[in-house]
Amino acid sequence: xxxxxxxxxxxxxxxxxxxxxxxxxxxxxxxxxxxxxxxxxxxxxxxxxxxxxxxxxxxxxxxxxxxxxxxxxxxxxxxxxxxxxxxxxxxxxxxxxxxxxxxxxxxxxxxxxxxxxxxxxxxxxxxxxxxxxxxxxxxxxxxxxxxxxxxxxxxxxxxxxxxxxxxxxxxxxxxxxxxxxxxxxxxxxxxxxxxxxxxxxxx
Length: 203
Known about the structure:
This protein is mainly beta. It has three helices and twelve strands. Strand 8 and strand 9 form a beta hairpin. The C terminus is likely disordered.
């Protein structure tokens, strides 16, 4: 069973972001909730006051597993693509103009989720490359943690939304100061985790 003790979060020396306007100035908690629909894995990320950080919408018949991310006013932010022939289950995130800003690699592990997110840090002038490591803390991935440079910058607890007959996953996410909440939200996209969490739960 996962521990009930909150994980201590350590702010990065410099902010880390793909959307600098979503960087928080103090440790905060957000929620990420999967939405029902034809395209499995669409979700909405919200702040504690209920305001929307971003939403995702999959393309049902896309041959590139394309998914679109939008802000609260439905303006496009990013597109998520998949390289089908990659043995490492490689994904990438691009801006509306096609510029690649983040790549995702699924590392081999037994049961526990293990993902690496490599991004160009939009919060620094030189867009330094940073790597966020998302790791499951238990075999059912009820708790996962995001680290950068050896420090934990986010802690995620999965819950089940019993308001829906589909029992959709809902996540409570604690984010360290200096971290982009939109970036952390994207690390929870079920596109990456379905083979680990939902499969183990028989969903």
